[in-house]
Amino acid sequence: MKKLFSAIFLSLGVLFMAGAANYNSPSDDFVLIKGGSFTMGSPESEDWRSNDEAQHRVTLASFYMAKFEVTQKEWREITGKNPSNFTGDKLPVESITWLEAIEFCNALSKRDGRSPVYTITDGGNTVTWNRGADGYRLPTEAEWEYAARAGSTTPFYSRKVPGAEDVNFYGHYPYQIEQNYFNDEVLETRPGIYRGKTLEVGSFKANPNGLYDIYGNVGEWCFDYYGDYDKSAQSNPAGASEGTRRVYRGGGWNDFGKNLRSAYRAAMPQNNNAYNVGLRLVCNADDSVKGTVTTREAANTGSKKSAGSGKALIIFYSWSGNTRGVAREIARQTGFDSIELELVKPYSTDYNTVLDQVQSDQHKQARPELKTKIDSKKWAEYDTIILGYPNWWASIPMPIATLLESYDFSNKTIIPFCSHGGGRFGQSLTAISKLAPKAKLTAGLSVHYSGGSSLSKDMEKWLKKCGMK
Predict the structure, then answer these.
(1) pLDDT value at position 300?
(2) Distance, CA of 99 to CA of 76 (rounded, Å)
(3) What is the C-alpha separation between 139 and 52, in angstroms, rounded?
(4) Separation of alpha carbons 250 and 216, rounded Å
(5) What is the Cα–Cα distance from 446 to 450, expressed in whole angstroms?
(6) What pLDDT, in 10s, does the model give residues 161-211?
(7) C-alpha distances in angstroms, 380 versus 21, 176, 291, 337, 456?
(8) Phi-psi map region of 144: left, alpha, beta (phi>0 left; psi -120 to 50 alpha)
(9) Do the beta carbons of residue 117 and residue 140 sit within 8 Å?
(10) Do residues 174 and 189 touch, judged by C-beta distance below 8 A?
(11) Nearest-angstrom CA–CA distance, 341 and 389
(12) Which residues contact 6 (CB under 8 A, 6 or more apart)?
């Protein structure tokens, strides 16, 4: 039995060694997170938990973690570029892909005389992590959650639910506002301001581990591919060896309180970027974890000519009409086929009533039945799905979830667009990523309400960028 466990650990590239050599902290901007064991994930009683947060025990070696998210100044010094949507030296860098983040880690390691951690081959489709290297790297999901929790077992590291005075997020919507929208007096943390942008790193009080902005501001890339947790006890897990989505954690400036929870998992293709996702650096504290981990992109993502005839379909759900107007403009400019989703039991036309209905459906992850049906042969004709919806409570409407689970999106490209009241895509792209993991997900277009007088020009620019015109 001992030999069996030894073989398992070696195959994962994990081996604890007695008398491990210690590494120095890179600078005073890093804190030591002492190793230990914790329960990762969330209990089934936690409000707004997802099924992918199954609890399991994890043991971690010690590591250093940066107090702050990487700033635009730091990024520009290494890369010579600044891709960020919001600009300022002390603002966190964002709009970076996962691959760009690990390339930055390697370049920074070389500059500082540390051993680069990652080997990138096959155009970025294969990445090997040298687990014993002393260079800069991304945290694993487990390391991130362990550091964020700081010994807590509650949804957040603090007993009190964080508000806009504690975290940079969509402050109008603190945790549990959804089911108390018309009676927020019952909430421990009341709605606050929504800044609608990133803030300088370190603008709020640190968590008990000395980490600033671990919730909000920007989400933070992790090493792991997204997938179901192994519920068995684990040591220094690094995620699956193959996948289509990489994990990021912590929520961003436009996230609702429910998506700041320590256990919440967001995901996105490693070649995609977003205006609310950046990174925080980690280094090994010693060489107690050895070996390598090799990860590979799953082979079947993206549109293939053999899958259909190269046709595109606009398919959308609209309640107020804003998304319908955007869809019609796409159809006008492209001539693509268009389908509007209808429900067997439509939501109410009354605003206050529909709020209760959609919040309830989202809370219980309902799948309302679609009246709209698409023939399987017709569905197979389309390689590209231009998918539209309103941003409801920082995610997709549940009719879109029904659609994603009802049809095979393998080998199709999803081009998303949404109408919103200020939160842009929220976490709707994560929801799509999770429900259609075998589709290629491209950059989308978020439209403020109906888009106004600039909609036509904005649409034309976006469609050209997507190769649709």
Answers:
(1) 55
(2) 16
(3) 19
(4) 6
(5) 10
(6) 999 999 999 999 999 999 888 888 999 999 999 999 999 999 999 999 999
(7) 57, 41, 44, 14, 30
(8) alpha
(9) no
(10) yes
(11) 10
(12) none
3-state helix, strand, coil in the chain (%, to 5): 25, 20, 55
Helix, strand or coil, per DSSP, at residue 220: strand
Q: Which phi-psi region, left, alpha or beta, contains residue 48 (left: φ > 0; alpha: ψ -120 to 50)? A: left
What's the DSSP call for residue 305? Answer: G
Task: Using CA atoms of 173, 89, 31, 230 in order, give the dihedral in degrees to the nearest 10.
Answer: 50
The angle subtended at Cα 144 by Cα 138 and Cα 145, nearest 5°, is 160
What's the pLDDT score for residue 76? Answer: 98
User: Angle at Cα 14 formed by Cα 13 and Cα 15, nearest 5°?
Assistant: 125
Give per-residue burial for 327-342: e unless 16+ CB within 10 Å, then b.
bbbbeebbebebeebe
The owner of tokens 């379909």 is 313
Residue 437 and residue 281: Cα distance in Å, rounded?
Answer: 27
CB 433 within 8 Å of CB 409: no
Tell me how far apart the alpha carbons of residues 441 and 443 are, in angstroms, rounded to a whole number.
Answer: 7
Residue 122 CB neighbours (<10 A): 9
CB-based burial, 345-363: b 16+ in 10 Å, e otherwise: eebeeeeeebbbbbbebbe
Residues forming a β-bridge with 388: 316, 417
Give me the residues of the chain with pLDDT under 70, please.
Answer: 1-19, 300-309
H-helix segments, 268-380? 322-334, 351-363, 376-380
